[in-house]
Amino acid sequence: MRKFKYFGAYLIPLFGLFTFKSTGIYAFFGLFFLYVLVPILEQILPLSSYNLNKAEKELAKESYFFDLTLYLLVPLHLFVIYSFLITVSNANISTLDLIACVLMMGTILGVNGINVGHELGHKINHPFKMFLAHVMLTTSIQNHFVTYHNSGHHRDVGTPEDFSSAKQGDNFYYFALRSQIGGYFKTWKLESKRLTALGKNKLINPMIIYTLIPLLFLTTIYFFFNFNTMLIYGITGIYGISVLEAQNYFAHYGLRRKKQENGRYERVQPKHSWNSDHLIGRVLLFELTRHSDHHHMGAKPFQLLESKKDSPLLPFGYPMMLMLSYFPFIFKPIMKKHLKLYGIK
After folding, report:
1. What is the 3-state secondary structure (H, E, C) of the chain?
2. What pTM was computed for the model?
3. Which residues of the chain have pLDDT under 50?
């Protein structure tokens, strides 16, 4: 029965559907649950650092159930987007309801769209999973994410070469812009190097397609709806991207890999990622909170990720850390004090 907890991640898109059918204060219920109630509950409920034993790992590894939970989220995600577009294209929608819809849909894009795309995107030898990954990432305007995350972030994490690793003192908004812009152009270089190594023409760089697909997606929204709806979705996508960057921001904040005498950086260790054993966040994010183990083996299925004793723990769960990231004057002093607890100045 323990495996059924991951259906809890479906609460987020379901709250979205509720939001799009509601008005006034009721339209903010899903946002209140995710951004207020969940952080409070995570401070009350005990942490769960339990790792599967050997027999449980074998069963979880062979079970199709966990793939199914990801697969079924894709059509639900697309239906939620369709419902959102129908709702915001209504010329009579109030400003308050529109704000609720944009924030809720942006959260869904950042949490479900990009995170599920991230999980599936690590299975580079599984064409169906890669296809679904790009479907999810297209809706989040992040098709280049798979290449940069797999070939850039995982290799360079905790170093100045990684645009998705924040050093201590970084301002979130500067970091997010640098991560998005720098990551986009670095992905062109990563794909170019890959094509050169394979002896292929650089003019067939996949980034051409990764750039055109989101533009085609937005154009499709314009064609079937109108310019305002396309603009609203674009703004929603930007907020969703900010949710992704907030997670990037605090996941490695202040944790740097040392450069060795040979010029190379020390290998990636559990101490280079912040972890969280808060159960609700673990479920909603498909164990992304067990970030150290994810960086140890990126292709490891989410259900097998473990809590690492050598990994530093965040002061709060992922939902709370997400919100704090948007307020640097609160976030940075908290993390400065927390870094000192682990002997990091």
Report:
1. CHHHHHHHHHHHHHHHHHHHCCCHHHHHHHHHHHHHHHHHHHHHCCCCCCCCCHHHHHHHHHCCHHHHHHHHHHHHHHHHHHHHHHHHCCCCCCHHHHHHHHHHHHHHHHHHHHHHHHHHHCCCCCHHHHHHHHHHHHHCCCCCHHHHHHHHHHHHCCCCCCCCCCCCCCCHHHHHHHHHHHHHHHHHHHHHHHHHHCCCCHHHCHHHHHHHHHHHHHHHHHHHCCHHHHHHHHHHHHHHHHHHHHHHHHHCCCCCCCECCCCCECCCCHHHCCECCCHHHHHHCCCCCCHHHHHHCCCCCHHHCCCCCCCCECCCCHHHHHHHHCCHHHHHHHHHHHHHHCCCC
2. 0.94
3. none
